[in-house]
Amino acid sequence: MTDIASLDERGLEEILSEPADAAGQSLARMQGDIVVLGAGGKMGPTLTMMLKKAAPDRNVYAVSRFSDKAVQRRIEQAAITTIEADLLDHSQYSRLPSAQNVFFLVGMKFGATGDSPLTWAQNCYVPSLAARHYKEARVVVFSTGNVYPFVTINGGGATEETPPEPVGEYAQSCLGRERMFQYFSQLYDTPVTIVRLNYANEPRYGIIVDLAQKILNDKPIDLTMGAVNLIYQRDANDYIIRSIALAKSPPAILNVTGPETILIRSLAERIAGVLGRKPQFTSREADSALLSNASRCFKEFGYPRTTLDQMVSMIAGWVDSGRKVLNKPTKYDVCNGKF
Hints:
This protein is 37% helix and 15% strand. It has one domain (4-201, 232-258, 291-304): Rossmann fold (3-Layer(aba) Sandwich), CATH 3.40.50. The protein contains 11 helices and 15 strands. The strands form 5 sheets. The chain has a 7-stranded parallel beta sheet with strand order 3-2-1-4-5-7-12, sandwiched between helices. It is globular, with a radius of gyration of 19 Å. The protein has helices at residues 9-16, 21-28, 44-54, 69-76, 116-133, 168-188, 207-216, 233-242, 264-275, 295-301, 308-320, and strands at 34-37, 60-64, 81-84, 101-104, 138-144, 151-152, 192-197, 200-201, 221-222, 227-228, 231-232, 252-256, 262-263, 281-282, 288-289. The protein is α/β, with parallel strands linked by helices.
C-alpha cells in the first residue's frame, strides 16, 4: 500500500484515479466521447481523470465553473479538455461539446438550508436543462442515499426498492433531480443510470476526515447518527464508471457504498488507534440511521478493492500529517435534514 502521506495533491489524485481493468472494458463497449458535468467538485477531478485513463483514445471533457483554478490545471495536465460554464445559464448549453456518454455530477449540499432557492435550482432546474440537452446520450447521474428514509441499524440498509422518503429540503431536492432525469429519460428514451452514493471517502474529505479532525482537536463526537456506510473514492469512481453499462429507460437505480454497516463509535475508536489518541463521545445512538444496501452493485461489479482498515490507515495518516483537507464536512451526523 502506497504511503500517501508523502504525496502532493497531484500524486494523490493519480492514485485515486487509477481504474480497474473492468472500467476500461465497460467503456470499450460504449462508443463516443465523454463529458463530465460538474467536474470541479469533490469527486469530479478524479472521476474525470479515471475516465481518461480507462479510455485514453476518447475525448474527455470536464465542464464546471472551476472556481478553483488549481483543480482546473490538474485536470488539464491529465490530457482532459476543460470548459468553464455556469450550468444554471441555459444559453451556455449551446457551446457544450457533443458526447454520447455523460456523467452528471452537478449538485448543491453545503449551505443548502441557507439558500433553498439556489439548492432547488442546482438540484432540479440544472438537471432538466442537462437532460434535455443530452437526450441522445447515455447518462450516469450522481444522486445520494439521502433520498431514503432512516432505517433500523441492524436491518441491512435501504435497497433500490425502498420507497424514497427524503428528510429536509436538500434531500427532497435530490429526489427532484432524480425525477427530472426520470421524466426526460422516459420522454426521449434516454438510457440513464441513477447512482445513489453514500459516503465516499478520500484523504481530503469524508467521514473519516471529519472524525479524525475531531479526535485530534479533542472535540466530542455525537453518536446520535450511530452508523454509516463508507466507500473509498477510487472504488466509488470505478463503480460509477461501470454503471454506464446499466443505463436504460426508465432509468436504472444503483446504490453505491461499502458492504459494512459501520458503527460510529467503533469507527472513531479505530481512527483514534491510528492517531494514538482517545476519542470523546456525546449523546447516545438512535435506533435508526441513514443506511444503504449495495448488494446489487456487488452482484454486478464485485466488492470494493479497498478495505475499511486500509481506508482508516491511509486517511487518518494523511490528516495526522497536517496535509491539505478540503474543509467540507459531510455533516453525516445531521438527523433533521438541515444542511
